[in-house]
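Consider the following input, taken from an annotated entry for Bacterioferritin-associated ferredoxin (Neoroseomonas oryzicola).
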Amino acid sequence: MVVCHCNRLTDAQIAAAIAAGASRPAEVYEGCGCGAQCGCCCKTIVELLRSAPATAARS
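Applying the prediction step yields:
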């Protein structure tokens, strides 16, 4: 599912960035090689961050 239309980021790409240690939207964008554009996806990214299982990389 496309979460960020500006950067064409999918939920799978965002999940991969989170699994790699991203803990804030800015870190998700950085991990995906882009930056925030309009910001409409930030709420969804935060929800994905909150629902992700805690990992050693994020603690």
